[in-house]
């Protein structure tokens, strides 16, 4: 039960991280627009204005976009892995049940029901 709880906590943490990166991205839009307006208002694209624009673009938009995508990919992969484990468990239970219904296998199981102590003596 604790492993399942751990998975839920990891998923919630990843979702919070994704929301944090999205909010950083949204908050960086205003400074980016102000920098653009400032560059066009003065009609001079100075080096500092261009550097500021690309710095805000990189730190405020691109990095959060990449981090958010990585977080969402992580969440999707965890969910798919959990689903595949569940499907595999169901398939294995079905095949094992089918295998144990075979009379030949039941006969072998009955013959090999010897305790480990008796096996070591012989």
Describe the model:
- The protein has one domain.
- With 122 residues, the protein is mainly alpha-helical.
- The two termini are 42 Å apart.
- The longest helix is centred in the middle third of the chain and has 54 residues, at 47-100.
- The chain has five helices and no strands.
- It has helices spanning 2-27, 29-42, 47-100, 103-111, 116-121.
- Helix 1 packs antiparallel against helix 3 and helix 2 (29-42) packs antiparallel against helix 3.
State the oligomer: single chain
Query: Number of DSSP helices?
Result: 5
Q: Please tell me what the overall shape is.
A: rod-shaped
Largest sheet: none
Ranges where pLDDT stays below 50 over 5 or more residues in a row are: none
Q: Whole-number radius of gyration? A: 30 Å
How much of the polypeptide forms β-strand, as a percent range? under 5%
Mean pLDDT: 81
| SSE-based structural type | mainly alpha
Level of helix content? Answer: over 70%
Order of helices and strands: HHHHH
Distance between the termini: 42 Å
Report the strand count. Answer: 0
Number of domains: 1
What secondary-structure arrangement, pairings included, does this model have?
Layout: H1 2-27, H2 29-42, H3 47-100, H4 103-111, H5 116-121
Helix pairs in contact: 1-3, 2-3
């Amino acid at each position: 039960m604790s492993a399942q709880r751990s998975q839920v906590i990891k998923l919630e943490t990843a979702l919070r991280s994704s929301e944090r990166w999205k909010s950083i991205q949204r908050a960086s839009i205003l400074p980016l627009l102000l920098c653009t307006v400032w560059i066009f208002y003065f009609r001079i694209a100075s080096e500092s204005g261009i550097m500021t624009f690309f710095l805000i673009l990189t730190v405020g938009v691109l990095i959060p976009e990449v981090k958010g995508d990585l977080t969402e990919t992580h969440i999707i992969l965890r969910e798919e892995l959990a689903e595949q484990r569940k499907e595999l468990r169901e398939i294995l239970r079905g095949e094992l049940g089918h295998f144990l219904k075979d009379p030949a296998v039941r006969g072998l199981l009955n013959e090999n029901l010897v305790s480990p102590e008796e096996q070591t003596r012989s």
